[in-house]
Model the fold of this input.
Amino acid sequence: MPEQQQWTITATEQPPEWFIQAVKQYTPASSGLYAAQLLWQRGIKDRQQLTAFINHKAYQPASPFEFGQEMHLAIARLRQAYNTKEKIAIWGDFDADGITSTSVLWDGLGQFFAQNTQLVYYIPNRLKESHGLNNQGIDNLAKEGCKLIVTCDTGSTNIEEIIYAKQLGIDVIVTDHHTLPAERPPVAAIINPRYFPKEHQLFNLSGVAVAYKLVEALYQSLPNVAKYPLEDLLDLVAVGLIADLVQLSGDCRYLAQMGIQRLQEDFKQPAAARRRPGVGRLLELCQKSGDRPTDISFGLGPRINAVSRIQGDASFCVELLTSRDVKRCNELAEVTELANARRKSLQKDVQAQVAQKLTQLDLSTTSVIVLEDAQWPAGVLGLVAGQVAQETGRPTILLSTEGAGEAGEAGEQGSRGAGGAGGEITSLSSNSELRTQNSELILARGSARSVNSVDLYQLVKEQAHLLHRFGGHPFAAGLSLLVENIPLFTAAINQQLRQSLGSTTLTPTVQADLTVTVADLGKELFLELKLLEPCGMGNPVPKLLIQNCWFENSWHRNQQDWQGKKVQYIKAEFDIRDDSTRNAFPGLWWGHYKDELPIGRCDCIAELDYNTFKKRYEIRLIAVRSSANSALNTQLSLTPFILDLRNQEHSATQHSGLIIEDCPTNWDDLRMWLRRCLAISRSTSGLENQQQLAIAWSKPKHQPPNQIWLTLVGIAKYLSRTNQLVTRGQLLEKIGISDQTLLVGIKALKYLGFTVQRQDRSLQITWNPNDSVENLADEAVARFLAAVREEQFQQQYFAEVPLSTIVAIASYDSK
Done:
């Protein structure tokens, strides 16, 4: 059983009356107050934003040629292939985003190039290959006579493989949304939204949306060729976008809204008349109708992902999503459903084994959970690690030594990250190839998942010397390391996090967005909250707190699969009641027995949903506890009321409380302000006097690390030549880095012959060029550049970290 959870309520301002009335126009059957509160706290604060957010028809999507010269180069190369009838290969990926990306290009480019003769596709085997291009696959395509490869959802950093393809006479067009290479690869074109600034409406595109933009540009360039409308691809785009958990803002939200509409329209048709009978059959098997984002995130996405996790080869999924052969699609849908049932079974087995191992751990002295097993299939470790992290409130790393090598989720998470955010596969050992070739040295590979308050990327990176490869972002990572290093890695990473947390105790946290009563539940509230859909990263499904309630008519059963076989998934069903109404409201609790529901009065956090199969509104229970324990924890009253004024000009000037205007580079910087705010709050009496804290930093505008180094050297030379003094503060302001990083830069300057001496509160810099050891100077400069890159990465993270995460940190520190 998970330990006692900590509950928090999202801090928010009351929206002004004009905004509530503006929202009410879209919810005529209800007051619109709840939706207005959520929209306001999530940054929708003017009429234009509101209209574009809710009504996709009022949104102006970006032209595909916003990608500039790269898109023009890609279209020119495709037109050349069209005119000379060259053979083209689509190189995809094996997860849901990669499969739908491949399907979009297969259907889209298939309007211009004959499928199976001029146009083919290749998807790596998850169990034998990793993400991205590989030489063996390129060799096979060369033998088939391919002259152009178009990647989707992959390829940006495959420099060596792109060069190899070029040597074989094959050009490469990369469409991707993951880590950018340091320099432009030798490709015909690279279409990657990471080249845009983060505020650009195309920045968050997933792989499938980038592929769609390429096809859109080709449709515009050859307007009289395509037989089917471009919009026919939007349902596939929605599936990939939502399944890949990218932030649904800008064009991502627009494309998802349009795609869900197409998905629902197609599902309403008789099976024989559907454009995508395979998608329709999958929806039937998971008892969904395609009109909700959750139909994708809980239905289609996991099923598509399950194929590669279980079988390795997911190539047939493209046929499943694009074929119009009803009989064939039904067959492939059933194979997919079986793979998903097998995935559930494997995941359940690993969860049970992990639960058993957890009983042998003392969680009171464990900050990071690290578990390993020789029999665990790598394909489900990320799923299980995520569940354990949520239940325990601790970062969780699960490792498998099943076979030697480093493919699988270590490669997957490293090269990708979640939605491509900050993901980068990092080789950490110069003799890594020798290690993997030595049969006596076996690599463990696995996945790590974090909780809101812990930056997993930094945590793992600090132990780089013990790892073979790793990569990821603050919430998820993949890694591989020698089995013999696991004990040392476990001890080191636990010690590191304990030191970082200080007296803070990690506790599983669940957060509510709104407080409602049972009387509020039902169609009106559901339709009101539906204004926020599609929900996803940055715009989560609203969590509702219901206080002083109780449960009746509870029962449970094993959930069966589509063939009627037991899959051993428990589901408790119940009626919930409180004093606000005489009517009960139905609900369910996945993975729990009815006996786990408290007896008597309690509080709960739930999501409001519509059950398509039962045709009823119901709640999906997230957390529950008896009222004796749960009257929102006294520490909540001590949590500072945090105002999010980031990236809002002049907003902080009218704030009377504490204001943070400098973007932090680590949690300790932020904790210092939170603790200061808590200290002031505790010295006051009553919530009405509670100290407010405004976070008011703007998105950092970073210079390239090399340019920062050249600036530092230039300043040092100038100061040496003029014999002027400089303060640390002046240097920091001029260069735009932290004090800690400046110290690394000063050390690097010394290797170039600079001498830095203190004079009172200033620094004097002199330069005496010497015959410095070149490799030592290069290493020192490389350390400085790495420190700058890391600092910039952290600032980007804090520029966009959800307010809920910061509130969670505040709650931890209020203990």
User: Anything to note?
Assistant: Confidence is low (pLDDT under 50) at residues 404-439, 630-640.
